[in-house]
Design brief:
Layout (H helix, E strand, L loop, with lengths): L1 H8 L6 H9 L8 H17 L1 H17 L9 H37 L6 H4 L8 H8 L2 H27 L1 H6 L5 H41 L4 H12 L2 H22 L5 E4 L4 E6 L9 E7 L1 H13 L3 E3 L1 H10 L11 H14 L3
Parallel strand pairs: 1-4
Antiparallel strand pairs: 1-2, 2-3
Helix pairs in contact: 3-5, 3-10, 4-5, 4-10, 8-10
């Protein structure tokens, strides 16, 4: 009941982080029918391009043994071993291409679905998976029943195809018993090719359906509840209290750094109690005055206090102080509309300064 309630609560689509975490742990959609399709395709290619010549090669080898038995007399154990080696190498020349093709197509089918990656979590022993009730639950789950239906469908389709092929060519197959061995090989190859082509088509259909169904079940398993999404967002954004504390610390550091620039300012323009803007002007430079500090209320009063302690001239001009506080950012040059008003104040500063 708890599992059903948990599944019912997962009504939201998985986030990209949930999908990424699942992929990192090796939980990716994987269709078993795609490697099966690749195996049938590889077997068909082997039958078409390699089997005829391989069977001829084996037939030639066996023919040499049966036509000249005096050359292959078994008197000692070494003679039997020699025959075995001879047959082994003849068969290897035929079977090795089959193994290579099936292996290459199987690996390609896996890479086609997901890029391989090392996941240590997948190979670690998990004793909780030894639970018998959980095992029965996986076997008789909706996903397990779908897998069982697919397997039974494949078996029935293959049996039906073989039965139909054997039934339609029953007499021809019987007549090959009295035909030349080379003709038997050709008949068997033709029938095997026909069977594998039909099986390949059926497997392709099943593989396409399985790809979509596998991805659907995988996506459904990753669905999240509203609470899980909230927890994930909270984890990604961080604790609001911690973030507020970090912002407060950052503001304090920026304020201290700003206040340390006030003693090096050229002048301070202030509203008596509400605004203060500290400017620095380099007479040898080519730029306009730059705002090195600005503040409102208590910060404005502190800027005035530091300026007066450091001997920086303070000019009270409420309209100019209010406008510059609103329009000019910290560490930026003043805009052209303030040039004339500020230039007059700077001129007064230089007039008062000792020559």
């Amino acid at each position: 009941m708890a599992d059903n309630e948990d599944k019912d609560s997962k009504t939201e689509d998985p986030t990209q982080k949930k999908i990424s975490d699942a992929s990192d742990k090796g939980n990716v959609p994987f269709s078993r029918e795609v490697p099966a399709f690749a195996s049938v395709l590889g077997a068909l290619l082997f039958i078409v391009f390699f089997l005829p010549s391989g069977v001829v090669s084996i037939t030639r080898g066996l023919k040499g043994i049966f036509e000249k038995p005096e050359e292959w007399r078994i008197v000692a154990p070494e003679d039997a071993l020699a025959i075995f080696k001879h047959l082994f190498w003849e068969a290897s020349a035929v079977l090795l291409p089959a193994f290579a093709i099936l292996m290459i197509f199987g690996i390609a089918a896996s890479i086609f679905q997901n890029v391989p990656r090392p996941v240590l979590d997948r190979i670690q022993p998990k004793f909780n998976r030894l639970s018998i009730p959980a095992g029965f639950g996986r076997i008789y789950s909706k996903k397990g029943m779908v897998e069982f239906a697919k397997s039974m469908t494949k078996v029935l389709v293959v049996l039906l195809i073989v039965a139909l092929v054997m039934q339609s060519d029953y007499l021809e197959i019987l007549q090959t018993m009295y035909a030349d061995p080379s003709a038997i090989v050709q008949v068997i190859t033709d029938h095997a090719r026909t069977v594998f082509i039909i099986v390949l088509i059926c497997t392709a259909v099943i593989a396409v359906v399985d790809i979509f169904s596998t991805r659907h079940f995988w996506y459904e398993d990753l669905r999240m509840s509203k609470q899980e999404i909230k927890d994930e967002n909270k984890q990604a954004d961080g604790d609001p209290m911690v973030k507020a504390r970090q912002r407060s610390i950052a503001r304090d550091r920026a304020r201290k750094r700003m206040m340390s620039e006030v003693p090096r300012a050229t002048l301070v323009i202030a509203n008596p109690t509400h605004f203060a803007v500290a400017l620095r002007y380099d007479a040898d430079g080519e730029g306009a005055p730059i705002v090195v500090a600005k503040g409102q209320d208590l910060i404005a009063l502190r800027i005035r206090e530091i300026a007066e302690e450091s001997g920086v001239p303070v000019f009270e001009d409420p309209p100019l102080a209010r406008s510059m506080f609103a329009q000019v950012s910290l560490d930026n040059l003043i805009p052209p509309e303030f040039y004339q008003a500020v230039a007059e104040l700077i001129h007064r500063v230089y007039e008062k300064s000792p020559q």
